[in-house]
Write a structure and sequence with these properties.
This protein is elongated. Helices cover about 30% and strands about 25% of the residues. It has 2 domains: about 140 residues, 2-Layer Sandwich (60s Ribosomal Protein L30, Chain: A); about 140 residues, Rossmann fold, CATH 3.40.50.410. It is α/β, with parallel strands linked by helices and about 300 residues long. The longest helix is centred in the middle third of the chain and has 21 residues.
Length: about 300
């Protein structure tokens, strides 16, 4: 995705810790000695560099593992830039073609992991200038660099998204955020990902993954239905907190837990529950139940009328 004039690329410097790089394949000799076949891949958290064997565009098993882990770490990226390189052994034309095959192979791995091909930009740079002509000196030139991009773009907010943004701002500061990530949140997901929760602990919930801790809202993915009350109970039982802010765009439609159970446990543990409810389709009974959870636990509510 290229940035439009209204979009700005976000500076993600220092936001991601480096993934653990898989060990390169090793040749073992009869005398007991061994030798690494490939250079180990490299990452600083913001980019991943995958190295290749001479005249090869084949991804080895450690490469596949590193790409999968890096893609998972940056699942919230807006787009990806892939740059392929070759060493100086071949002709310029051959090197550009080889670098192109390498970068297209990595692009194929990303699309197989669910990334749209329209969000991937590939660049074939041909050969780089190695410091020398030895095998070791040219090895770093045989590579593909993966760089995820994060863009912030102005957008027309849905009524539900507007309630979520206004509600979260109203509830700040937030100690622990429990975010509805059911399938109906799909249109609100870009807004959710872009919200700065400061130092809040974050969990997401849906019927696919249950309740899961998130490092930040960039990791948010939507799926399934809304086990609202059972998810709140799970967080209350697992966490030692004074306050819980719950964001949902749908009423509870999964599980047997009830609002009364949530209220009882929250009172017992002394947890205030704030509710941000964004669904315009709530009926009066649903709204009353959500307000009751907030009121009876000493929390606040922000519910679209």
């Amino acid at each position: 995705m290229a940035a439009t004039p209204d979009c700005t690329e976000r500076d993600m410097t220092g936001q991601f810790s480096p993934i653990s790089i898989a060990a390169p394949e090793v040749l073992r000799y009869r005398d007991g000695s061994s030798k690494a076949v490939d250079l180990p891949n490299e990452t600083d958290g913001e980019t991943l560099t995958v190295y290749y064997r001479t005249n090869s565009d084949t991804l080895q098993s450690p490469d596949l593992a590193d790409i999968a882990a890096f893609r998972e770490q940056h699942r919230g990226a807006t787009s990806w830039v892939l740059e392929g390189f070759a060493d100086s052994r071949g002709t310029e034309k051959a090197n550009v073609e080889l670098a192109g095959k390498r970068v297209e192979g990595v692009a194929g791995r990303l699309t197989s992991k669910g990334i749209s091909s329209s969000s991937i930009t590939t660049v074939s740079n041909g050969e780089m200038m190695a410091e020398g002509r030895t095998v070791a000196e040219m090895a770093p030139d045989r590579r593909v660099t993966l760089r995820p991009q994060y863009f912030s773009c102005p957008q027309e907010l849905t009524p539900e998204a507007r309630v979520i943004v206004e509600g979260l701002e109203e509830m700040m500061p937030i100690e622990h955020l429990l975010m509805d990530l059911s399938g109906s949140m799909r249109e609100e997901l870009p807004v959710v990902r872009g919200f700065d929760t400061k130092d809040a602990e974050i969990s997401g919930f849906n019927s696919c993954a249950g309740v899961a801790d998130l490092d930040d809202l960039q990791q948010a993915e939507v799926c399934g239905e809304t086990p609202l009350w059972s998810s709140i109970l799970e967080v209350l039982n697992a966490e030692n907190i004074d306050g819980l802010t719950v964001v949902t765009d749908g009423k509870n439609n999964r599980g047997t837990a009830t609002a009364s159970q949530v209220i009882a446990l929250a009172k017992k543990k002394g947890v205030k529950i704030d509710i941000v409810a964004a669904d315009v389709a709530y009926n009066d009974a649903d709204k009353a139940e959500l307000r009751s959870v907030a009121n009876q636990t000493g929390g606040k509510y922000f519910i679209r009328n």
